[in-house]
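Lecture 7, part 2: worked example. A protein chain together with manganese (II) ion.
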Amino acid sequence: MSNPFGVHALVWTGGWSPEEAEHAISSTAAAGYDLIEIPALDPSRIDIADTRDRLAAHGLRTSLTLGLTFDNDINSEDLARVAAGRSTLMSALDITRGVGGEYLGGVIFGAMDKYPGPTTSAARANSVSVIKELAQEAAGDGITIGLEFVNRYESNLLNTVQETLDYLELVGEDNVVVHADVYHMNIEEDGFREPLMRCGDRLGYVHIGESNRGYLGAGTIDFDEVFGALVDMDYQGVITFESFSSAVVDPNMSNTLAIWRNLWSDGMDLATHALGYMKTEMDRARDRRVRGVESDLELG
Ligand code: MN
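Predicted complex, written out as structure tokens:
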């Protein structure tokens, strides 16, 4: 079995005009990926029928991700903001359904921003309530909802695997999963192996990114540990490469994510390198597992 591999659209383009969509989708297919992750932050800029047709023409699967803002924050005690966030998420679900997407995730449980203080139980309850409703809406179309816990500077609600698992318990819907991003785990977790394995079958989506969000292998993340855990837990889900550079700017995302530096300028070189890197790491982890089982048998 081989996991589906995806790449984030911001490797190719910061906009989604028909020309930009074609460039991103055809490049994703040419680089050998199975799936493209499309940012759904601004529903008005996505032509649903056009996107669906281009995905089909290139035989690509798709997932949609976004982060809420303080204006439409469902992790808030302000019911007007919660209502605005609910509306954004339902629009994003419409887009996901319309383009034939299978997954809607990201920082959808609250604002993707640095909060001035910790969350409150009332704000958390509002967030849980909206995500539960979103999940129930999504279930009818077989769409999975993913909660991407992020570092402390981008959320005050979900920063770790355990916080996300606890939140999932409160939501109580089977089509809501943990979306793990190793860039964020590298900041907040003690390591990678134990937290990933603790997710068990609640792990539904993985973002692979380097510690500096550039080329895989050029930073400090222990990818042997990451891919070893994914193989050992028999993770079969999507693995999406995420990388950002000032060379490709999305007016909605680049400033929020603090993409100030130029870490690469050739998206095709970056994306093909990343796919090769991820597949090699998976193969090596499978090999280590087989050899581990064999040596256990010899010892036994
Ligand atoms: Mn991510």
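The pocket of manganese (II) ion is lined by residues 148, 181, 207, 242 (CB under 6 Å). Residues 111 and 168 are 18 Å apart (CA to CA). Keep this in mind for problem set question 3.
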